[in-house]
Structures are given as structure tokens and as C-alpha cells.
Description:
The protein contains six helices and no strands. By secondary structure, the chain is mainly α. It is elongated and about 60 Å long. The model has no long low-confidence stretch (mean pLDDT 88).
Amino acid sequence: MKEEKIIKELNKEINKDKKEYIGAIVLGLNDALIEITGTLAGLTLALQNSKIIAVVGLITGISASLSMSASEYLSIKSEKTKNKPIKSAFYTGFVYLLTVLLLILPYLLLKNVYYSLTLTLIIALIIIFIFTYYISVKRNYSFKKRFFDMLLIWLGVATISFIFGYLIRMVFGVEI
């Protein structure tokens, strides 16, 4: 009986955390989707080697997740909200890193960089769809508007990064 009560209390705390720290989760997820997809798109044209792209993407993702965690910690600490800075930083960094791992997975599994990029874009699109739907239902927001806002930002950054990857490859003559 005590165990059931403890589990119920733990579930309440987790659900409360989801509501209180949704901003930290959104920050980590959105930033990872935009930054890492853009990075992978640019690296795909610049490097054209799936293993090197995966390694560079992972290093970039780990560094960025730590940076985002630190920024979230400092932001929450300076705002003096009811959220705990360490917990908020954890949620931001953890979701960021989890998203990074999902996005680089195709580069670890496939040799063809264009198939990898295509699969990465599909994974990102699925993440955007699921998370936007979840937020829309929980917060009673317009799913369609939020989804297309995120989609346009994400595709814009990925496209620009893809173009810059090509240009940088041409300017520096990178052949791998």
C-alpha cells in the first residue's frame, strides 16, 4: 500500500514538473532541432562522409547541450522564478542531447550522406509534429499555426545551412 502511494506521489511530481518545466523542454528541443539539423545539413554537403558528419555532429551537439544547460541555469537563476535552476538546466540539456542522438543516428547507420540527411529530416519532422501536437493539446494552442511556424523556421535554417555547406566546401576546396 505504501508503495502505491509513493508511486502516485511520484507520478504527481512528474506531471507537475512537465507543466512547470515545459519551457525548458521546449527550449532544448527546438534549439536542438534547428541547430543540429542545420549543422548536419551543412556538414552533409561540406564533408560528404557519414562517419565524420556523425562525429562532428555529436561533438557539436554535446557542446551545445552543455551550453544550453548553462544558459538555462543562469537565465532561471536571474529571473527568480519558482523553477529550480538546476532542474530546469537538466531538462533543457537532456532533451537537447536526446534530440541530437536521434538526429545523428542515420549518419551512424547509413553510408550514403543524402539518405542520412533525408532520414534525419524525417525524424526531425516527426519530432516537430509529435511535440507540437502535445503542446497544442496541453496548452490549448492552435496546432496548425504552431506546427507551420516551427516547420518554416526549421526548414529555413536547414536550407540556409545546406547552401552554406556547399559554398564553404567550394571556397575551401574540401574533398573527403
